[in-house]
Amino acid sequence: MKMEPQVNLLVIVADQCRYDCIGYARKYPVRTPNLDRLASAGAWFTNAFTPIPVCCPARQAFIRGRRAETFGALWNFSGALKVSALSPEQYAWPKELSEAYRSCYIGKWGVNPEHDPMEYGFGEYIGEREYAEFRKQTGIPAPSANGYFGENDRISLEQSRTHWLSSQAVRRIHAFAKERKPWHLQVHFPEPHLPCRPSSPFSEMYSPADIPEWHNFKESFAGKPYIQKQQLYNWGIEGYTWQDWSEIVARYYAVISQMDDAVGHILQALEDANQAEHTIVVFTADHGDMCGAHRMMDKHYILYDDVVKVPLIVRWPGMVRNGTVCDRFVCNMLDLPPTLLEAAGRMPASADFHGRSLLPLLQGAPVPDWREEAVATYNGQQFGLYTQRMIRTNEWKYIWNTTDTDELYHLEDDPGELVNRIGDSSCRNVVAELRTRLYQTLLAEGDGLVQNEWMRDQLLRGRKL
Q1: Which residues of 402-439 are buried (b: 16+ CB within 10 A; e: fewer)?
Q2: What beta strand segments (E) does 156-210 contain?
Q3: CB–CB of 99/119 below 8 Å?
């Protein structure tokens, strides 16, 4: 029997936001006071990972609650060969809330190029197209042509995309508060995805001279798969020094701080509308960004922590203790669907999610059978098809590159993932164990990559160079 829902759901998702670029992570000097306060009033996850570090399949995995490969969402449907996308006829967990909840989806979609969120259980949709129309109608000048490297935007902060989207969310919260029904609001910022175009005053917040090098900037690519260094030539950045990158990273910091300010307006609206005490607030990201780490750009053909590790914050007043820090391995896009449905009392009896509800972890309950690793995948994109599968524990990360050399990193000694130890004979037992664990997870979750003898033999019989 389904419980009558009593809690509102506010889910805020950033696009391409690194875990270590939220102030609460205490890694890099990015100022995010609103997200820091949100984390201090709820739970901060130190080991949250995306199931796949590519925008569209990650978002489809979130709406479906299963790994993207199991329903054909392999890469972005706008940037390479044609690929399947989650269709409205397939299961989407927001539909479970459609009768009991008022709902709205704001911002970046990326789940299907032809069908919008209203066909997946949402009652209203305000997307990037509406912002583009606003910009056109108000005569706001187009950005200059600096491509993916970004530049400062000449528009006012109030006219920026971050703050225009947050203003839409603020209006919906106040409108929802006037009704008796609980509500479900998702706000998906396209920021800080490159190109980064901060507005004043955030565009002046960070000086490139003050931006510290990424801890893994000095990458040699020795013993690494060919495609990693090749990407530098694809992007035209093979000669970039840290001085070149620091300007780009300064804008990345600035856009994150600008987004944080927009999030602050949304959180203040909860207070003003007397909704905060009855609302679960989630902040996370679809994946991270290289932005110069390992001298690389964007997020493709790699499964470094820079792109697979994500921020995850959950605040639930009265249910989650302030300042909770959880270091268990969680998969944000797969664990959040059962978490939110269980919290709302709408968990379907026949749920086939790949994730697990985070509620026991949020409430401090012992969960002895919780997973001890993160698993992530990659399938290819604009520079050609390339299949990867990753398993990561606290000590080790193993990456199965089916058409190139594998990767093995000892994270305790090498947190920057700079030294590939796959050829180290002393690590053979570690590699064999991780390959077996990876195979078992992929097989159990229906990944077709391991469902043939040739791929199986690579992992279980060591038939891999």
Answers
A1: eebebbbbbeeeeebbbebbbeeeebeebbeebbebbb
A2: 183-192
A3: no
Taking alpha carbons only, the member of 92, 72, 91, 90 closest to residue 82 is 72
Environment class of residue 35 by beta-carbon count within 10 Å: exposed (0-12), middle (13-18) or buried (19+)?
buried
> What is the predicted pLDDT for the residue at 144?
65
Q: How far apart are CA 365 and CA 382, in angstroms?
A: 44
Residue 465 class from Cβ within 10 Å (0-12 exposed, 13-18 middle, 19+ buried)? exposed
Closest by CA position to 204, among listed 250, 161, 158? 250
Q: Name the pTM for this structure.
A: 0.97
Q: By the 8 A CB rule, do 117 and 130 touch? A: no
Ramachandran region of residue 314, left (φ > 0), alpha (ψ -120 to 50) or beta?
Answer: beta
Tokens of 463: 């038939």
Is the C-alpha dihedral spanning 79, 84, 87, 92 positive or negative?
negative
CB neighbour list of residue 454: distance below 8 Å, 6 or more residues apart: none
| pLDDT tens readout for residues 167-194 | 999 999 999 999 989 999 999 999 999 9
What would the pLDDT profile of 219-274 be if each residue is shown by its tens digit? 999 999 999 999 999 999 999 999 999 999 999 999 999 999 999 999 999 999 99
pLDDT at 1: 30
> In this structure, which amino acid lies at residue 453?
E
| Distance from C-alpha of 105 to C-alpha of 11, rounded to nearest angstrom | 10
| Ranges of the chain whose pLDDT falls below 50 | 1-4
Cα(175)–Cα(80) distance, rounded to whole angstroms? 40
What is the set of domains in the chain, with CATH numbers? 8-362 (3.40.720.10), 383-460 (3.30.1120.10)
Question: Is the Cβ–Cβ distance between 317 and 276 less than 8 Å?
Answer: yes
Structure token pair of residue 10 = 């506010």
Q: Compute how many other C-beta atoms are within 10 angstroms of the C-beta atom of residue 335.
A: 24
